[in-house]
Design goal:
The chain has about 575 residues and is of the alpha/beta class. The chain has 21 helices and 16 strands. It has three domains: about 130 residues, Phosphohistidine domain (Glucose Oxidase, domain 1); about 120 residues, Enzyme I, Chain A, domain 2 (Orthogonal Bundle); about 300 residues, TIM Barrel. Bound molecules: phosphoenolpyruvate and magnesium ion. The site of magnesium ion has 5 residues, from helix 17.
Length: about 575
C-alpha cells in the first residue's frame, strides 16, 4: 500500500530505489557490492567469522568457573543458538547471493529485519532476545573487520528509470533510511552506492543535512518515524524538493516521479552551460560565487561548478570520527595544501575547527554531559580551551598559505577577549614557525558573524579583521533560540524573520561602508529564493555548496541590484518580510 512520510527538504532532486535500513550505530559498516564470482568467497568469509565467534563463545563456556551464575552459562547457550539461527544465516546468504552485498552489509540488513520481528513480539522475554541477536551480530562484524574482500566499491550500473518495474530485484538504485546519521557518518557516504537518504531526525541546517546537500543527492531529514515505517527493501521515492518520502509507490506514481527526475536531469544539463559565464548582474555588478567544502577533494566539485574560490572549508571534518586521535600538524598541512593546490591559485578560506553541538568529534564523545551543547564549548571556545591543539592547526594553515592565497576564518567569536586571544595565538604560531625555520605565507584574517552579539558589534570586529563571513545557520539558531538540529522546532527556523534580516543587513552595510570584504557562507547563500534579497541588501560574495553555484548564478544573471536595493528596503522595513518575497522560494 502506498503511503507518504513528510520531512524536511534538504537536498534537491528525486531518488527512486529500494530502501536499505541502517541502524545509526552500524553506519560505519562497509557497504559495497561484490562481483558475482565473489559470492562463494564472501559466504566463506562470513562462515569463517561466524565459526571464529562460535569458537570464542565455546572457549568462554569451557573456561567458566564452576560457581559462575547459571544465567551466564545460559546466556552463552542462547548466543550460540542464535549464531546457528536459520533465519539469520539464510537471510544473510540471500542478500549476498541475490543482491551482491558484501558480508557486513548483508549481515546488518538481515539483522534489521529480525530486530523488527523481535520488536513486534508480545512476550517480553522473547522481545529482549533482540539485544542478544545484536550482540552476536556485533561479534561477527568485529571478526569480519580486517578481512574485507578487496573489491572496488563499484556502483552497480543503474537502469534507466523508465525501465524500472516494481518487481525488479537487481540493478536498481538503493536509498538509505536511518534514524540518525552523524555528519561524519554522512561524509562516509560521499563515494557510496546510495542514490538518496532519509533520516528520522535533523533540521534543515543541521550539519547532517549540510553534508547531505554537499553530496548532491536527494535527501529528506526530520522524517520522524521513517526508519520504523519503511521496511528493508521497500520501494521508496525520495522527493528532495518537497521533503516527501513515498513508500511502496503505485506504478502511476512511479512513472510520474520518473518523469520529474528526468526533467531535473535536463535542468542540470542546461545550468551546466553557465559554468564559464561570469557572474555579473544586469547592471554590471560583479558577484563572487565561492564554494563551501568539507574535504580537500571537494575542490574538484568547486572548480567544476565554476566557483571562483573556497569561501568556507569546514576543517572540523578532518577531526571527526578519529576516536580522539586528532590530526597532527603535518597531516593538516597536507590536507590544507591539497585544497589550495586543488583551487589552482584561487583563494581558499580555511575555517578553524568548529566541533561541538551537532558535530561531535566521535560518537563516544557525543554525550549528554553538556546540557546545552549548542551554547557550550563549541568552535573557537573549544580551540581556546586547548591552545596546543589550536596552535597546531594555526601552524598548519599558515604553512599551507605558502602555496597559494589563504584566508583564515574564525568561527563563533563574540567577545573582544576571544578575538584578542585568537590573534595572539596566530602571532605565536608564526613565531614558532620562525623559530623552526619553516616556511609560511600571509593570510587574510576573517571572523564569522554567527552570534547576535557579534552582529551587533561589527564595528569592533572590523578593527581586528580583514573580512567578515556571515554564518546564517548559526546566526538564525541563536537569534531565534531554535536548535538547528531539532526537527520539532524546524518550522520556527526562519531566515526571513525581521530580526535576522536586520542583523544580516546591518553587518553587510557596515562592511560595505568601511570597504571591508563580507560574504554569507550559511545555507541562505545557496538558497535561490534568497539570492535577490541578499543582492538587494548589498551582498556581493556568496559561499555555498558547489552543487548550488550554477542555480544561484542564474539568479544573479537575471538581477538588477539597483532595483533590488529599493525592494530590499521595503522587505527590511516589513513586519512580515515573507509576504513580499517572490513565490519562487
Ligand atoms: C553557519 O553557521 O552558517 C556556518 C556556515 O557554519 P556551520 O554551518 O558549519 O555551523
Ligand atoms: Mg556555524
Amino acid at each position: 500500500m502506498t503511503f507518504s512520510i513528510h520531512g524536511l527538504a534538504v537536498a534537491r532532486g528525486i531518488a527512486i530505489g529500494r530502501a536499505v535500513l541502517v541502524a545509526s550505530s552500524r553506519v560505519d559498516v562497509a557497504h559495497y557490492f561484490i562481483q558475482p564470482d565473489q559470492v562463494a568467497s564472501e559466504i566463506e568469509r562470513l562462515r569463517l567469522a561466524r565459526d571464529a565467534v562460535v569458537d570464542e563463545l565455546q572457549r568462554l563456556q569451557k573456561d567458566m568457573p564452576k560457581d559462575a551464575p547459571h544465567e551466564l552459562v545460559a546466556l552463552l547457550d542462547v548466543h550460540l543458538m542464535l549464531l546457528q539461527d536459520v533465519e539469520l544465516t539464510s537471510g544473510v546468504r540471500h542478500w549476498i547471493e541475490e543482491r551482491l552485498y558484501n558480508a557486513e552489509w548483508a549481515l546488518t540488513s538481515q539483522l534489521e529485519i529480525i530486530a523488527r520481528q523481535f520488536d513486534e513480539m508480545e512476550d517480553p522475554y522473547l522481545r529482549e532476545r533482540k539485544a542478544d541477536m545484536e550482540q552476536v551480530a556485533e561479534r561477527v562484524l568485529h571478526c569480519l573487520k580486517g578481512t574485507s574482500s578487496l573489491v572496488t566499491q563499484a556502483k552497480r550500473p543503474a537502469r534507466p528509470q523508465q525501465e524500472l518495474q516494481l518487481g525488479d530485484t537487481m540493478d536498481v538504485p538503493l536509498v538509505l533510511v536511518a534514524h540518525d546519521l552523524s555528519p561524519a557518518d554522512m561524509l562516509q557516504f560521499k563515494q557510496s552506492v546510495f542514490a538518496g537518504f532519509v533520516t528520522d531526525v535533523g533540521g534543515r541546517t543541521s550539519h547532517t543535512a549540510i553534508v547531505a546537500r554537499s553530496l548532491d543527492i536527494p535527501a529528506v531529514v526530520g522524517a520522524r518515524s521513517a526508519s520504523q515505517l519503511v521496511k528493508q527493501d521497500d520501494w521508496v521515492i525520495i522527493d528532495g524538493d518537497a521533503g516527501v518520502v513515498i513508500v511502496d509507490p503505485s506504478p502511476i506514481i512511479l512513472a510520474d516521479y520518473g518523469f520529474k527526475q528526468r526533467q531535473g536531469d535536463l535542468e542540470r544539463e542546461r545550468l551546466a552551460r553557465l559554468r564559464h559565464t561570469p557572474a555579473v548582474t544586469l547592471d554590471g555588478q560583479k558577484i563572487e560565487l565561492i564554494a563551501n567544502i568539507e574535504m580537500p577533494e571537494d575542490t574538484v566539485a568547486a572548480i567544476t561548478a565554476g566557483a571562483v574560490g573556497v569561501g568556507l572549508f569546514r576543517s572540523e571534518f578532518l577531526f571527526m570520527g578519529r576516536q580522539g586521535n586528532l590530526p597532527g600538524e603535518d597531516e593538516q598541512y597536507d590536507a590544507y595544501r591539497r585544497a589550495v593546490d586543488g583551487m589552482n591559485g584561487l583563494p581558499v578560506t580555511i575555517r578553524t575547527v568548529d566541533v561541538g553541538a551537532d558535530k561531535p568529534l566521535d560518537e563516544a564523545r557525543h554525550d549528554a554531559a553538556h546540557l546545552n551543547p549548542a551554547l557550550g564549548l563549541r568552535a573557537i571556545r573549544w580551540s581556546l580551551a586547548d591552545p596546543a591543539m589550536f596552535l597546531t592547526q594555526l601552524r598548519a594553515i599558515l604553512r599551507a598559505a605558502a602555496h597559494g592565497k589563504v584566508n583564515l576564518l574564525v568561527p563563533m567569536l563574540a567577545h573582544g577577549s576571544e578575538i584578542r586571544q585568537t590573534l595572539a595565538l596566530i602571532e605565536q604560531a608564526r613565531q614558532e614557525l620562525d623559530r623552526r625555520g619553516v616556511a609560511y605565507g600571509p593570510v587574510r584574517l576573517g571572523a564569522m558573524i554567527e552570534i547576535p552579539a557579534a552582529a551587533l558589534s561589527v564595528r569592533m570586529f572590523l578593527k581586528y579583521f580583514d573580512f567578515l563571513s556571515i554564518g546564517t545557520n548559526d546566526l538564525i539558531q541563536y537569534t531565534l533560540a531554535i536548535d538547528r538540529a531539532d526537527e520539532s522546532v524546524a518550522h520556527l527556523y526562519d531566515p526571513l524573520h525581521p530580526a535576522v534580516l536586520r542583523l544580516v543587513a546591518d553587518t553587510i552595510a557596515e562592511c560595505v561602508k568601511q570597504g571591508k570584504g563580507v560574504s554569507v557562507c550559511g545555507e541562505m547563500a545557496g538558497d535561490v529564493g534568497m539570492t535577490r534579497l541578499l543582492l538587494g541588501l548589498g551582498l556581493r560574495s556568496f559561499s555555498m555548496h558547489p552543487s548550488q553555484v550554477l542555480s544561484v548564478k542564474q539568479q544573479v544573471l537575471r538581477s538588477d541590484t539597483a532595483k533590488l536595493a529599493l525592494w530590499a528596503e521595503k522587505v527590511l522595513a516589513s513586519d512580515e518580510p515573507a509576504t513580499l518575497m517572490p513565490t519562487t522560494r
